[in-house]
Amino acid sequence: MLSPHRLFTLLLCCVSVVLATPLEKRQKSTLKPTDYEILNFALILEHLEDAYYRQGLANFTEEDFKKAGYAKKLHTDLTAISSNERKHVHFLSKALTAVNATPVPECEYKFPVKTVTDLVTTATFLENVGLSAYTGLTQWLTKDTYINDIVSIFAVEARHSTYLRFNALGKRPYPYAYDTPLDWNSILTLISPFIASCTQAPEGTFPSIPGIKKFPGLDIDLDATEKLSDAKKTKGAPVDVNDTITLFTPGYELVRQHEGDELWVGWKCGPTKGTLLPATPLDANGAPDGDGRSSRFKSLVPHGMAGQTYLFLVKCNCTMSDESIIAGPAVVEIGD
Question: Using CA atoms, how far apart are residues 208 and 43, in angstroms rounded to an integer?
């Protein structure tokens, strides 16, 4: 199966980056998000998933699923998942309205879905992104009622993800022992390609959370993957630990300011701070590039990665943060 991230590209044009200085002066959040902001952020994700399933399923019948090699029952089960997402939207909207907070409206979306395979692959990607959002943001909730509400939704989203991984993609339903928490900026970066226009948060700033914004785009050239095992060099084979992958910055180059400046690839899978490995700059032919500017980079896949894994370009061998991240996250599926 294709990696979910093959189905879309984060577009960023005409940007120049100097590695020895911050990509931009990101204003670090000093205030904790309120419970209402977290509920609204969850509502943004639920609106996205709700619209995705409704629009996608309207374009394909059970017979289309069968012709694409999937069981007809998958269409029925996706319809049930769609119903769940609609209920999540109503639930969160009602919770916000009950405390006189304004629920964020549904956006206008652009989904890159042309086939049934596109539909189920991107659905799995979105479900996993939602899990990472809930995992990363629940820590800020203060009211037990809201914690229970969010955890209840999270549990159902986890079932969606497990079902889709196994029944739609044919992959291990639970590839890792933990989910991967992501912050606001990373989640906004991942969902932005699906948003055509929106009157509120995804392209703007939440009250009392200064500096929230998406990172520059980062993607992966799966066809350039160097397999460790000769037996797995078939095009389209799963990416595994110890393989070498190629990342690229779509539409812009990174420029080294000082001799000795280095880039690192931050790999994030699970609740740890992540694993950092050197990013080797490449020229247009895939050879190591020493002229100080590049849009393609090579990195080894470290041990401990499995399932939907997130990658960042980082400007130092340091903790991944808003101040150190240059681009990303990109997404890659590790293992069968």
Answer: 18
Q: ∠145-151-154 over CA atoms, to 5°?
A: 145
Q: Which two tokens stand for residue 316?
A: 């130092």
SS3 for 129? Answer: helix
Alpha carbon dihedral 90, 95, 101, 106, in 10-degree steps, equals: -20
Distance CA 183, CA 176 (A): 20
User: Where is average pLDDT lowest: 170-184, 229-243, 258-272?
Assistant: 229-243
**Do residues 191 and 213 touch, judged by C-beta distance below 8 A?**
no
pLDDT digits (tens, 9 = 90+) for 7-24: 322 222 323 333 333 334
The total of other beta-carbon atoms located within 10 Å of residue 154's CB is: 18
pLDDT tens-place string over residues 138-147: 888 999 999 9
For 318, left (φ over 0), alpha (ψ -120 to 50), or beta?
Answer: beta
Give me Rg for the CA atoms of the chain: 20
Question: What's the pTM value of the predicted model, to 2 decimals?
Answer: 0.85
- Sheet of strand 244-248: strand arrangement: 219-226, 244-248, 296-300, 275-282, 263-268, 307-314, 325-334
